[in-house]
User: Which sequence fits this backbone?
């Protein structure tokens, strides 16, 4: 057995074992705290709601375990099981050895993976979310969304993939630098187009009609020095009863979006506090920092792929005998998560730090107390568990645990 095969198997099973262990810890921790509401939330969240959140989180985690096992099975089938080589030979017989063969190979892997994951997505939406009262989608809307996502993915992804493969073959030993510039340009273009071109294909966006709330928001935006294309309400209730708010876009295309479900649950003070938190991300340049980090990591990854691409052991160790730019790119994308999983806590730590900074900004420019009230309502309405396993949260959670976040905001109330 090739040495790199042993390394890959060791890394993969270490990752899978860690993920399964974390999931079991999470389930045990939630179960052990299911029958008592944490003290900080006892006045506002009843035991029945707390137990609903525990059961909802447990159901999603159990489905995640199945997703982990499915992903592992597919990865082994594609690599050591010979699936990639089989498809590469199939497409070579039809398309020869040109660029379109590589595009067809990668696209076929994506299609096969999506088909295997479709039953889990259906179960997540129409069984788990429906059981807990969150799903508002119909089968027709689900299929329509799936078709739109597929068409948009093909329209945007196929030219990008074709261009990347061409650059990899034509730009010599420094092809990875050219690909990096293309990748950066593509991502920035998507950020610009998403608010006004892509998102409206899935949801309806209408200007905020509540003039009193709009005036308060405009005052806050002026205070914070934020300019946007407008304030919009999104019909999130068509698909889910979960509530949310977000910024999207870059430069002149920036817009603020509220889910209609969010506006129906929070009062004006709470909405202003939630918006101030989101503005905190903007003022602390979190979005720019995340984009810069993504570009830096992608540059390092492409350089590493450039080094791996001529190495025969890289292909042979992963069950592939046909060396090509497409198989190198495909193998790298498929197996890199097995080698980078232990970096997840670092990414989550940075994200949680950003959330604390945004909370501080909200406390300074709106109200920490109103933000606490809004968060408690959202935790309750969205059935977010108040008692996640600390180690599971360390690896996965982009936001601080509910207790930590509320305690931090209460400390800010005393400081400010």
Assistant:
């Amino acid at each position: 057995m090739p040495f790199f095969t042993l390394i890959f198997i060791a890394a993969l099973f270490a990752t899978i074992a860690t993920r399964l262990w974390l999931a079991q810890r999470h389930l045990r921790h939630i179960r052990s705290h299911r029958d008592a509401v944490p003290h900080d939330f006892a006045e506002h969240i009843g035991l029945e709601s707390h137990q609903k959140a525990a059961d909802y989180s447990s159901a999603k985690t159990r489905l995640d375990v199945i997703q982990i096992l499915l992903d592992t099975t597919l990865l082994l089938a594609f690599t050591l099981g010979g699936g990639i080589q089989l498809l590469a030979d199939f497409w070579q017989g039809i398309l020869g050895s040109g660029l379109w063969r590589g595009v067809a190979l990668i696209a076929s892997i994506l299609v096969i993976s999506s088909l295997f994951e479709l039953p889990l997505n259906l179960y997540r939406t129409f069984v788990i979310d429906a059981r807990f009262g969150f799903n508002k989608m119909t089968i027709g809307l689900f299929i329509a969304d799936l078709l739109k996502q597929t068409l948009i993915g093909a329209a945007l992804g196929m030219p990008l993939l074709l261009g990347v493969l061409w650059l990899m073959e034509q730009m010599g030993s420094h092809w990875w630098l050219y690909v990096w510039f293309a990748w950066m340009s593509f991502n920035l273009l998507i950020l610009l187009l998403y608010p006004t071109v892509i998102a409206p294909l899935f949801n309806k966006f209408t200007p905020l009609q509540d003039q009193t709330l709009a005036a308060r928001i405009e005052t806050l935006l002026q205070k914070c020095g934020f300019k946007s294309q407008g304030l919009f309400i999104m019909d999130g209730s068509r698909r889910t009863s979960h509530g949310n708010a977000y910024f999207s876009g870059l430069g002149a295309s920036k817009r603020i979006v509220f889910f209609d479900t969010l506006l129906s649950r929070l009062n004006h003070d709470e909405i202003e506090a939630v918006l101030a938190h989101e503005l905190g991300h903007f003022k602390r340049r979190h979005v720019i920092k995340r984009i810069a980090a993504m570009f830096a990591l992608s540059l390092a990854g492409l350089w590493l792929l450039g080094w791996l691409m001529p190495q025969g052991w890289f292909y042979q160790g992963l069950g592939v005998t046909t060396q090509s730019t497409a198989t190198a790119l495909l193998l790298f994308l498929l197996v890199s998560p097995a080698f980078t999983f232990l970096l997840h806590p670092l990414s989550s730590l940075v994200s949680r730090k950003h959330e604390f900074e945004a909370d501080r900004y909200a406390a300074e420019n709106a109200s920490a107390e109103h933000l606490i009230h809004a968060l408690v309502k959202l935790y309750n309405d969205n059935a977010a568990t108040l008692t996640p396993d600390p180690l599971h949260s360390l690896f996965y959670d982009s936001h601080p645990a509910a207790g930590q976040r509320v305690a931090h905001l209460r400390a800010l109330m005393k400081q400010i």
The radius of gyration is 23 Å. The beta strands are 205-207, 231-234, 245-248, 255-259. The mean pLDDT is 92.
